Request: fold
Amino acid sequence: MCMGVPMQVVEMQGTFALCDTGGKQERVDMLLVGEQVKGTWILNFLGAAREVLTNENAQNIKKALSAISDVEQGELQIDHLFADLIDREPQLPPHLQAQILAQKQAKES
Reply:
């Protein structure tokens, strides 16, 4: 299984960047996201940045990855790692909301 890992840019090196996550550094291809400033969060898939992340999104992804690790080690108390999802109604992305609305309108007419 391939999972994206949030990493922070330490320094650009041409079309690559030295990035860090939890003290582990890796050279990451930045061609898909372009040059980024030090401190920018990116989502790294197999050595290539696929997306620029907000700090909030990076932290949420890190918590989700931590939950996976905890469950693999037998820890089942992981709700605290998903505080952003607890007690709220799930929401579809805007493009899917528009599709659902169009389907409802088509049925009504």
